[in-house]
Amino acid sequence: MSVSELSQSQKITATNRRFSVAPMLDWTDRHYRYFARLMSSEALLYTEMVTTGAILHGKGDYLAYNSEEHPLALQLGGSNPADLAACAKKAQEYGYDEVNLNVGCPSDRVQNGMFGACLMGEAALVANCVDAMRQVVDIPVTVKTRIGIDDQDSYEFLTQFIDTVKGVGCDTFIVHARKAWLQGLSPKENREIPPLDYPRVYQLKQDYPDLHISINGGVTSIEQAQAHLLHLDGVMVGREAYQNPYILSRVDNELCGHSLPLMSREEVIGKMIPYIERHLADGGRLNHITRHIIGLYQGLPGSRAWRRHLSENAHKPGATVQVVLDALEKMQQQAALQAV
């Protein structure tokens, strides 16, 4: 798909930059993104982080996606400007709406590859990478970063990083409001242990009013997103949008100014059935998709029956969409019993 084939409505706009779903390794694959798009036409979706090495030297097609996923951003992991430029050019040719550079992942594997959060300490290199990508594409090139790393966690350190990268024309930053400890904490711990510092990100927007600043980290409700949007341009939600995906059904109306009928969970499932059938017909397995929809009924009566039936049956050889329909029936039966 070329850029020229995309309709204007699929381009990233100020409206859909108000809410985005974070890139999450092993979670935000194309099946999840198709599912998420059913519930929100406006949310900006991100791929999992894809390394430049995988794109340039891997055997698979790491850039494939469903056309329905727009607006869609590709997150890249890497630190070689020439490689990143080559990948950004490929992304534009594939029709991606944005290329994002990962300067936030703290895992050891990522550090060993010299990308992710460790790049915060190499602002000039990040600027070179962003500049190289911007030279070869017309789509936005953005940066997702932390507020600091290790003992380099002052506001001055953060603004020096922003100034350097801003200097090559980058005008959009997604800021995870925690610093990253590069040694001693796992990626999971780095999402939970370093304290959130929302005021620091708010201050960044005050000091750089010309930049588009989105916040990431710890957001678990639409109400919290609304509160952040009083101070910032956008909100990125990660785990909550995956584990409780129906939150996305409120995005278009409550954050993006639409006035649309609310799609029920059952309608979402109904729209997923043809997609699942196509995936199975192409040789895919049912659990490739059901693992993403298992949280659809999070917190509702009968949700345990839904999760249990999918978990126990979707992985079996030859499993069909009937497993999903049976899980829905069991959920509804259990919910009815609990209502008596």
TrEMBL record:
EC numbers for this chain: 1.3.1.91
Cofactor(s) required for function per UniProt: FMN
Sites annotated Interacts with tRNA: 102, 188, 191, 304, 307
GO MF annotation list: tRNA-dihydrouridine20 synthase activity
Domain of life: Bacteria
UniProt-annotated binding residues for FMN: 23-25, 75, 144, 176, 216-218, 238-239
Active-site positions on this chain: 105 (proton donor)
Keywords: Flavoprotein, FMN, NADP, Oxidoreductase, RNA-binding, tRNA processing, tRNA-binding
Catalytic activity: 5,6-dihydrouridine(20a) in tRNA + NADP(+) = uridine(20a) in tRNA + NADPH + H(+); 5,6-dihydrouridine(20a) in tRNA + NAD(+) = uridine(20a) in tRNA + NADH + H(+); 5,6-dihydrouridine(20) in tRNA + NADP(+) = uridine(20) in tRNA + NADPH + H(+); 5,6-dihydrouridine(20) in tRNA + NAD(+) = uridine(20) in tRNA + NADH + H(+)
DUS-like FMN-binding domain sequence ranges: 21-323
Function (record text): Catalyzes the synthesis of 5,6-dihydrouridine (D), a modified base found in the D-loop of most tRNAs, via the reduction of the C5-C6 double bond in target uridines. Specifically modifies U20 and U20a in tRNAs.
Family recorded in the similarity comment: Belongs to the Dus family. DusA subfamily. Belongs to the dus family.
Name listed for the protein in its UniProt record: tRNA-dihydrouridine(20/20a) synthase
